[in-house]
Amino acid sequence: MSTSLIYRSGTVYEVLMRGLYGRHYDGRFQPISALIPAGASVVDVCCGPATLFTKHLQEKSVDYRGLDLNEGFIADLTRAGGRGEVWNVHADDPLPAADYLIMQASLYHFLPDPEAVVGRMLAAARTKVIIAEPIRNLATSDNRVLATIGRRFTNAGDGAQEARFTEPSLDAFFRGFGSRVSYRALIAGGREKLYVLDV
Ligand SMILES: C[S@@+](CC[C@H](N)C(=O)[O-])C[C@H]1O[C@@H](n2cnc3c(N)ncnc32)[C@H](O)[C@@H]1O
Q: What Pfam families does the database record attribute to this sequence (predicted)?
């Protein structure tokens, strides 16, 4: 299964994501960074090109470790001075322990059974799990051309993923974690929703 265009390189990914999010692109990362204290340890699950680290967490001396299926993204992260590992999160292995386990814009890759990966994140986190997920995206657009682009271009190399969350379906999913959800907020101009889970 070949990796689709958007995941071919960190540069292509950033250009396409900036196009999608417009002026709200940088607003994806700041609210997450604000929740992480200096010196904390972080495991970023499905880190992609690790912009959260290179643009925000690196300067806070956070002990960061990024995991992603994509070798190119991990190579970029290593070159940028971060720690990363090629890791298939679909495998049942326990995730590495850290104060904060983070996942951004990647929960849809685990549909139709996202509970399992969130459970493994909770098991690995010493303090909190932070998940931000798109609730408005190309793949669920009413425009068929945009929807096809959104679905086809986000194959991470482990198969095409067509389903996406909406705000009601994401809220319904996190209601299953009850009082563990201590904070929720719209970020990036309402394009993503952020949830903080206590361990
Ligand atoms: C939309 S990107 C999000 C990247 C980054 N977290 C961000 O918000 O910019 C989704 C990422 O999930 C990764 N991914 C998808 N399936 C994966 C899996 N089974 N194991 C590890 N990474 C995976 C892809 O390679 C891609 O980098």
A: MetW
